[in-house]
Specification:
With 339 residues, the chain is of the alpha/beta class. The protein folds into 2 domains: 189 residues, Metallo-beta-lactamase, Chain A (4-Layer Sandwich); 128 residues, Rossmann fold. It is built from 7 helices and 19 strands. Its EC number is 3.1.-.-.
């Protein structure tokens, strides 16, 4: 019997009687990170990295039964050893290492190798079997260094100011929004944010994260504060009446899908920045190789392509269908309809 099994409720450990990122209600859930496709409501007990605890409570309710663990701390369920290790995806994101009788599996959740200064440095965890995401599992996805991307964003904001346009960027409220704030502080006069981002920001400030001050956008926010500022909103705000108050404005989108130019046009954006909280193609390959895994399971994204490529390089790999990949960036944009 496999140490971890793929079931209709999620990734299950029969020996330990727990699930990893289950998408159906279960008794005991080990959570890799606080994005909604991995952290669902309805479980009796949650275990996650301690920085994820306040984020889970924000998203799932303050009354959930949740236990926080430090990176590297070991926990035992029915003789199975569990430990959490940095995934580098977002604040509090972790890979789940599971061991029994010398056999080691790692469920990576979502991850990236480039350290963004907030999410921690991805830790290589040696294992026999590695469960990897493959959101951007195609060779076309090869990110620029993040310093270059943030310099490009700062230049774009300055250019907009020179032409009397307000700068609006769409970025996921947990992950990229914090990276924008962290890396653009000192380069932008003022940050104005949508309520979804503001709520997350307040929780992170209360828990000691070093992020710059922001202003919550309300119907009463005067237009005079828009100039020389950066307005950050979640992708759900695109094409909404909420956006009208910023006219005239230039719209930027932060997403790995912006690597493909056509996706910028489909979003009706003026600029696209391929900033992602997921590993690109070279990083996915590097992570798999570094683990030394003899077996790899690829989930969500371009999982079939990635698994087939690994097979061609001599690694035993399979595609696994999961309910992961429903957060904004993890779903490829819908192609423009045929005229």
């Amino acid at each position: 019997m496999q140490l971890l099994q793929f079931t209709d409720k999620g990734i299950y450990c029969p020996a330990g009687d727990f699930y990893i990122d289950p998408w159906q209600p279960v008794r005991r859930a080990v959570i890799t990170h606080a994005h909604s496709d991995h952290a669902r409501w309805g479980h009796q007990h949650y275990l996650c990295q301690h920085d994820s605890v306040p984020l889970l409570k924000l998203r799932l309710g303050s009354d959930i039964q949740v236990q926080g663990a430090a990176f590297g701390e070991t926990i035992r369920y029915n003789g199975v050893t569990i430990s959490l290790h940095p995934a580098g995806h977002i604040i509090g994101s972790a890979q789940i290492r599971v061991e029994q009788a010398g056999e080691v599996w790692v469920a990576s959740g979502d991850y990236k190798l480039e350290n963004d200064g907030l999410s921690g440095q991805f830790e290589v965890v040696k294992c026999h079997t590695f469960i990897t995401e493959s959101t951007f599992g195609l060779p076309i996805y090869n990110w620029l260094p993040q310093e270059t991307i943030f310099d490009n964003i700062a230049q774009w904001i300055d250019n907009n100011s020179q032409t009397d346009k307000n700068s609006v960027i769409l970025a996921y409220s947990l992950g990229k929004a914090q990276r924008l704030l962290y890396h653009l502080k000192g380069k932008v006069d003022h940050f104005l944010v949508h309520g979804a981002i503001f709520n997350t920001h307040q929780v992170l400030l209360e828990n000691g994260w070093d992020l710059p001050p922001v202003t919550l956008l309300t119907p009463d926010t005067p237009k005079s504060v828009f100039k020389n500022s950066l307005i950050i909103a979640p992708p759900s705000a695109a094409d909404s009446t909420w956006m009208r108050k910023f006219n005239p404005y230039a719209l930027g989108v932060c997403s790995g899908w912006m690597q493909v130019r056509g996706n910028m046009r489909r979003r009706n954006a003026d600029a696209g920045f391929a900033l992602s909280d997921h590993a690109d193609w070279p990083a996915l390959l590097a992570a798999v190789k570094a683990t030394g895994a003899q077996k790899v399971y690829a989930t969500h994204g371009f999982s079939s392509v990635f698994a087939r490529y690994l097979q061609d390089t001599g690694i035993a790999a399979s595609e696994v269908k999961t309910a992961f990949g429903e957060e904004e960036e993890a779903v490829p944009p819908t192609p423009a309809p045929t005229p």
